[in-house]
Backbone:
């Protein structure tokens, strides 16, 4: 299966968008080769500004640029681009509904060897607490490319989370990203796996394995976390009556929290979670995913467990 | 866009009238920041009457000069000046800090003429850097001004922005420090020594001008000098007095965020030499509450 890191797909798409729209400007924080924003920077040096690791400044400058009609893309690592400048994002981007697109790479455990300080496992929670913010966690390269295009074309604040590691391409060339929609990748009857980011391909793998033992699960790519597609999620709750959530994030504040909140107030059913329950450590990405139970096997176990809880 | 300067007004009278309006707005809701609104007043009056290329009828003109109030708590001063220049009706002022009004406790972009939502300190200079960078791209020839509090300069982000402004040679960006020497709790020098403040800015690559922040002539020539500097961003350190114009509020840390009582308001308005009639008339125009106006009427 072909693979690409979502950060690379984002960087290539951003370069194209720079050609299409002169209002696109990019601000970065000394990590531009890693985020792939350098592709834009080399082509459009007059619309690209590096501020070094001054993330508070980056977000406020982006808001200032947006106030003058620019479509400002602010890029750095997820761990630096959400926690450190949260106050700036809240007051200058979220509250005035500024046209700023925050695209952060190296999210989650798969930063790998840099260890827990670099592994952003709280960012989804932080960004989903901001009223009016669009939050998107693309599952693969084609989705990352289309998500940034949609963000550029849609006024208002966005957070797009990308990954360092390559992940399998699960969408074909006819794929069309839809803002605010949950994507039903497979419709089953026994349980529903709701996943985002790199966990979507793990969910598809789990679904295939479970089919061999006669368990047919729906798989939902829940890349749009805010706003949530409540209709699709509640239809699945009604159809399968059991959910497993899967995310490369801390168990609180992310996909599991968002879905659980929706389910408990509308259609209570059992839910199991595949997510982090602690901070990580240094190691290779694959070793970390294995040790911290972010694998297809973990999802399969969670499906077995949730099906036993069905009434 | 026409240069909409307002040169024919008596700025001394404007200063005095707006001091009255600020104090009444704050006492009307028993909350708001009087000290910093009075210290910044001549800075705002000079900018909005003599410097800024603005059109209150078209506040989003792309070529307008930008003014950012970074110390967003000093909103009463800003609102008084924006209303004086016709960005919104004077009758809105009595709604300050009240439910449903566009005049939020801290300046917010919902108010015509306000460029940035503020309230959490330290962010406005970076916002101004963004505006000045946009000017470099679009070549619209506007100037960007950002007013900072002196206590606000204790925020680290101010210095991130200062560094980036000189790195990008943003000579069309001017910062003004309202150097009133008092912050929320105490005198700035008791909290965190800012001096030598001018040297700090010049070492960050800025041109530094010092002036009397209550003298509109001194302010006007400082702004013109800043605009004519085409090599570096400029900071104007405006020497001001917190609570300027009211003897018992001047240099008094107690009036950073505390509203004057009705008795104190009346004493202040007497000091500013307003007649009872003119105070009540102004109050009616501003939609000040009947209860406050009747207290003034009985006790003035």
Residues:
């Amino acid at each position: 299966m072909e693979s690409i890191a979502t950060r690379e797909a984002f960087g290539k798409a951003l370069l194209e968008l720079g050609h299409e729209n002169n209002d696109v400007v990019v601000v970065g924080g000394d990590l531009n080769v890693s985020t792939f924003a350098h592709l834009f920077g080399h082509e459009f040096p007059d619309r690209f500004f590096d501020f070094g690791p001054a993330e508070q400044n980056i977000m406020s400058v982006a808001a200032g640029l947006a106030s003058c009609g620019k479509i400002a893309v602010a890029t750095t690592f997820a761990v630096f681009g959400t926690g450190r400048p949260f106050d700036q994002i809240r007051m200058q981007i979220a509250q005035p509904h500024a046209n700023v697109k925050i695209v952060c790479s190296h999210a989650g455990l798969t930063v790998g060897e840099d260890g827990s300080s670099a592994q952003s496992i709280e960012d989804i929670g932080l960004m989903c607490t901001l009223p009016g913010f669009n939050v998107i966690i693309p599952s693969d390269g084609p989705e990352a490319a289309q998500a940034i295009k949609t963000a550029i074309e849609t006024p208002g604040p966005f957070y797009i989370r990308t990954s360092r590691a390559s992940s399998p391409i699960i969408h074909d060339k006819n794929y069309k990203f839809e803002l605010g929609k949950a994507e039903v990748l497979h419709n089953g009857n026994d349980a529903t796996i709701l996943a985002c980011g790199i966990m979507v391909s793990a969910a598809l793998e789990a679904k295939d394995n479970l089919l061999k033992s006669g368990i047919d699960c729906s798989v939902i790519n829940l890349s749009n976390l805010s706003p949530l597609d409540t209709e699709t999620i509640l239809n699945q709750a009604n159809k399968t009556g059991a959910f497993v959530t899967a995310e490369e994030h801390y168990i609180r504040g992310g996909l599991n929290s968002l879905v659980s909140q929706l389910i408990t107030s509308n259609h209570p059913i059992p839910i199991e979670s595949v997510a982090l329950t602690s901070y990580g450590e240094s190691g290779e990405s694959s070793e970390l995913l294995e040790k911290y139970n972010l694998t297809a096997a973990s999802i399969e176990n969670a499906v077995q467990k949730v099906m036993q809880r069905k009434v | 866009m026409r240069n909409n300067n307002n040169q024919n007004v008596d700025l001394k009278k404007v200063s005095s009238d707006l001091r009255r309006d600020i104090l009444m707005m704050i006492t009307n809701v028993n909350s708001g920041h009087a000290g910093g609104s009075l210290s910044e007043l001549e800075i705002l009056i000079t900018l909005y009457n003599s410097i800024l290329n603005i059109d209150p009828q078209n506040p989003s003109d792309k070529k307008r000069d930008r003014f950012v109030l970074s110390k967003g708590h000093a909103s009463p001063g800003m609102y008084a000046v924006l209303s004086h220049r016709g960005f919104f009706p004077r009758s809105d002022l009595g709604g300050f800090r009240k439910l449903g009004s566009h005049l939020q406790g801290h300046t917010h972009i919902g108010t015509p003429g306000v460029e940035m939502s503020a309230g959490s300190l330290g962010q406005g200079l970076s916002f101004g850097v963004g505006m000045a960078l946009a000017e470099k791209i679009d070549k619209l020839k506007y100037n960007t001004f950002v007013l900072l509090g002196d206590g606000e300069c204790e925020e680290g982000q101010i210095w991130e922005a200062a560094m980036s402004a000189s790195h990008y040679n943003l000579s069309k960006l001017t910062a003004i420090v309202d150097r009133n020497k008092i912050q929320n709790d105490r005198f700035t020098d008791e909290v965190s020594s800012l001096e030598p403040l001018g040297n700090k800015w010049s070492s960050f690559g800025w041109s530094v001008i010092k002036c009397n922040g209550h003298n509109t002539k001194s302010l006007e020539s400082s702004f013109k000098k800043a605009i004519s500097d085409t090599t570096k961003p400029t900071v104007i350190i405006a020497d001001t007095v917190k609570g300027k114009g009211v003897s018992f509020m001047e240099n008094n840390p107690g009036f950073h965020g505390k509203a004057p009582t009705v008795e104190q308001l009346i004493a202040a308005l007497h000091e500013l030499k307003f007649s009872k009639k003119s105070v009540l008339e102004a109050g009616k125009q501003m939609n000040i509450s009947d209860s406050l106006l009747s207290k003034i009427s009985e006790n003035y």
